[in-house]
Design a protein that fits this description.
about 375 residues, alpha/beta, Carbamate kinase, Archaeosine Trna-guanine Transglycosylase, Chain: A, domain 4, eight-stranded mixed sheet, five-stranded mixed sheet
């Protein structure tokens, strides 16, 4: 038998993404089960009671749908899309049984996260759901996706979602205890790897393929996801989602699994990117806004905007300047034309001026970095 993982402290975190694979939510025959989900849901509930926030990325819709169809149906792409539609409602209903708080279903494709406007819309929606006290449960929109129905889609989706919501850590619950030096199912001498400073090509080369019939992601895709998360300054935690004691340990701040570190902290990675991203324009603000942004860590509201220069679009990086020079940089929630129309207005007047609203912030405080002290 392979050696056990050594307990170690979890990194400090406030917001996390928890990815749960199909193998933890379905039986060998493909029907949906809450056997392992219950312990994971308890971890989520305990974390929320401690003031933390968790977004769940959950596989299992196709497998759950397969349990509702006759064995000969569901073959091919269109069949799998139909199975996803059948299984999605059962998947969300399963998660809702474990929580008193409302569960919110969010279906995404990778295209939603590549398109700048849709990316920001998804981010705004998830932030609002968290502020409402809801538990977002995200899944790939397999009913309409084409090329995304492939190996490891939700592992990588979870990493993208972690960056999307500015998570501190990505938890990946699997049917293995963590990363080993070899495949523990076939090699009795496989050694556990408790801590990885950085995911390398050697790690990827030694990783295996899919681990079960129900799942689509093997260890390689989990390491790929960890690499994506690390680029955003987010650590990844691999653990056994079937091990109740391990999951209870997570709630107590102890990991028995693999910790994959990020070269920089989340904030450092984000600030580095913002400081070095070429600005597409400039927003000049008044003295009150300068004080609010510099000393109070506030978001930029339209009332403090004096002018907007350039032809930037929603989602572009812009400089924020006082009357002399830029002192901050951030991501614009509105285009240059929109900013000019809502400048000096109260937030309640945004929809009156534009006919629509992307929220009260011209630049959200989470999307701001100071250029000078």
């Amino acid at each position: 038998m392979p050696t056990a993982f050594a307990p170690q402290p979890l990194p400090r975190w406030h917001r996390a993404v928890l990815k749960v694979g199909s193998s933890l939510l379905t039986t060998a025959e493909g029907s949906l089960t809450g056997r392992h989900a219950e312990a994971l849901a308890t971890f989520v509930a305990r974390s929320r009671s401690a003031g933390r926030e968790i977004v769940i990325v959950s596989s299992g819709a196709v497998a759950a749908g397969r349990g509702l169809a006759t064995p000969e149906r569901g073959a091919g792409l269109t069949g799998r899309q139909a199975l996803a539609a059948l299984g999605q409602t059962r998947l969300i209903a399963l998660w809702q049984t474990f929580f008193d708080a409302p569960v919110a279903q969010v279906l995404l494709t990778h295209d939603d996260l590549r398109n700048r406007r849709r990316y920001l819309n998804a981010r705004t929606t998830l932030r609002e759901l968290l502020s409402l006290g809801a538990i977002p449960v995200i899944n790939e929109n397999d009913t309409v996706a084409v090329d995304e129905l492939k190996l490891g889609d939700n592992d990588n989706l979870a990493a993208i979602v972690a960056a999307l919501v500015d998570a501190d850590v990505l938890f990946i619950a699997s049917d293995v205890a963590g990363l080993y030096s070899a495949n523990p199912r076939t090699d009795p001498f496989a050694q556990p790897i408790d801590d990885v400073a950085e995911v390398t090509d050697a790690h990827l080369a030694s990783a295996g393929g899919a681990g079960s019939a129900a799942g689509t992601g093997g260890m390689r895709t989990k390491l790929e996801a960890a690499g994506k998360a690390a680029a955003a300054g987010i650590e990844t935690i691999l653990f056994d989602g079937r091990d109740v004691a391990c999951i209870e340990g997570l709630a107590e701040g102890t990991l028995t699994g693999t910790r994959l570190r990020a070269p920089r902290t989340r904030m450092a990675a984000r600030k580095y990117w913002l400081r070095h991203a070429p600005p597409a324009g400039k927003i000049t603000v008044d003295a009150g806004a300068v004080d609010a942004l510099r000393t109070r860590g506030a978001s930029l509201l339209p009332g403090g905007v004096v002018a907007a220069e350039g032809d930037f679009a929603r989602g572009d990086v812009v400089d924020i300047a006082d009357e002399k020079a830029p002192f901050a940089r951030g991501i614009a929630q509105y285009s240059a034309a929109d900013v000019r129309r809502i400048a000096r207005r109260h937030t309640r007047d945004i929809e009156i001026a534009l006919g629509y609203s992307y929220g009260e912030n011209v630049v959200h405080r989470d999307d701001l970095v100071a250029l000078t002290s």
